[in-house]
Amino acid sequence: MYAAMSDSIHPYERLTPDAIIDAIESTGLLTDMRLLALNSYENRVYQVGLEEHQPDLTEFNNQAFIIAKFYRPGRWSEQAIIEEHTFTRELQEEELPVVAPLEINGKTLFEHGGFYFALFPRKSGHSPEISDNEQLNYLGRWLARLHQIGQDYNFQHRPVLNGKGELGRSDNLSLIRQSMQTVLNANIMDDSYNTAYESLCLDLEQTIAQQYQPEAHEMLRLHGDAHVGNLIVRDEQFWLVDFDDCLQGPAMQDIWMLLSGQREEQQGQLEAIREGYEMFRPFPAQQLKWVESLRTLRLIKHAAWLAERWQDPAFPLAFPWFTSARYWSEHILSLREQQAALQEPPLQILF
After folding, report:
1. CATH 1.10.510.10-classified regions of the chain
2. Tens digit of pLDDT for each residue in 310-346?
């Protein structure tokens, strides 16, 4: 079941400050009414102040603030969110630097007023600049440990990154075709770009179907969105946050987003990651051939995500360029560049 909401222009219009406080206090916590909205678009996330005298919940470590995350209604089932929570708490128990949801009376997921929500410890920090091989080596070790735990069993209610479409969809369309139709149906782009965009997507769909063919044994529980924006650092300690997009997929999905720059730069970054990764598990070198396929899927799905959410007032405010001719011209150019990149030899491990 999904948390139910009445039909409305956007799902968060009922999430008022009073509703947020009421939801949090329904768990038994006492707030001091301090409320600060944090940057988040898919969900809504708030820093909430707590009264000094709280129940004896050791996980709170006497914090003055917690983070409350309200999940977008209708996106994830209750079972899917609980799988996210279970995974992050497994990682936390193995002393990996993740921010896992807090447990209150044996629960990590709550429902109030039509919203599922969870509470998290507050971890302050800043986005890192991955500037040297030592940091990449550390992140390689960290991802290997995450994947080691991720292989223990499979998700049952989360997406599978096999290129074959979204979990729960019955139309049997590929992920690219689903995303393409979402964009076209939204009437976001100028009509003059429609033909070029559709043609490119269909060509890329065919190429990726030929190149990206993971086997079941290559699919692990992953973070799924392990880019630098989901890392914070404080006192030289990295933390990985936001497992909202965790899924079943190949290990390379959590690796390739740490690569940037020209091919030569990426090759050096890859070697640093590999050295750290192989301290805990074999590096999936055979999956390097999928990097550009995974990059292409992400580019196309990101545009579809924006189109699908455009009726949420937060999105036009945060992404005002999305409907511009310049954006779609550059997006189509990026897809053409990916078309060429898919024909190039993949990155290699240099021994």
Report:
1. 133-341
2. 999 999 999 999 999 999 999 999 999 999 999 999 9
Residue 70: strand, helix, or coil: strand
- Report helix, strand or coil for 144: helix
Active site (catalytic) residues: 225, 242
End-to-end CA distance of the chain: 50
Ranges for all domains in the chain classified under CATH 3.30.200.70: 17-121
**Rg of the chain (C-alpha set):** 21
The structure tokens listed for 10 are 């956007």
Residue 69: CB atoms within 10 A of its CB come to 19
Q: Does domain 17-121 have CATH number 3.10.20.30?
A: no
pTM here is 0.91
Tens-digit pLDDT profile for residues 242-273: 999 999 999 999 999 999 999 999 999 999 99
Beta strands at 44-50 and 31-38: parallel, antiparallel or unpaired: antiparallel
Cα 176 from Cα 124, distance rounded (Å): 36
Amino acid letter for position 334? S
Q: Decide if 239 contacts 98 (C-beta within 8 A).
A: yes
Angle at 64 between CA 63 and CA 70, to 5 degrees: 90
The CATH class that applies to domain 133-341 reads: mainly alpha
Give the CA diameter of the chain. Answer: 62
Residue whose structure tokens are 């999940």: 71
Q: Angle between the 291-308 and 194-211 helix axes, to the nearest 10 degrees? A: 140
